[in-house]
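Review form for a predicted model. The reviewer records the input and the model, then writes brief findings.
Reviewer: anonymous (R2)
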Amino acid sequence: MKCLFCAIVNGEIPADIVRQSDNVLAFNDINPVAPTHILIIPKIHSENAAELTLANPEVLIECFEMAASIAKERELNGYRTVFNTGADGGQSVFHAHLHLLGGRALSWPPG
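Model under review:
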């Protein structure tokens, strides 16, 4: 099966792109759970954050830098960043992706 997020990176599937760099792409989630819900993905395929950490830690850092920059630009009072890893961790697309959530008070525990 073809990777959904790789298809977005390659322009084969449209996305509401928020920002991109040479290594990272940010786009609005199609099923947002908060007023700000952006997915930040590496343009290279890594199944999850743990794999990305081993393969290319600089790109992992760039994902967090982009999240912080977007949060600052949107003047979020607070925000949450989440990498779900594995099916039991809530990962449904097996291409590493960082959720940036904000724009409302977020409860804990998350789920």
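Findings: Residues 6 and 12 are 9 Å apart (CA to CA).
Further findings: Residues 4-102 form a domain with the HIT family, subunit A fold (CATH 3.30.428.10).
Recommendation: see findings above.
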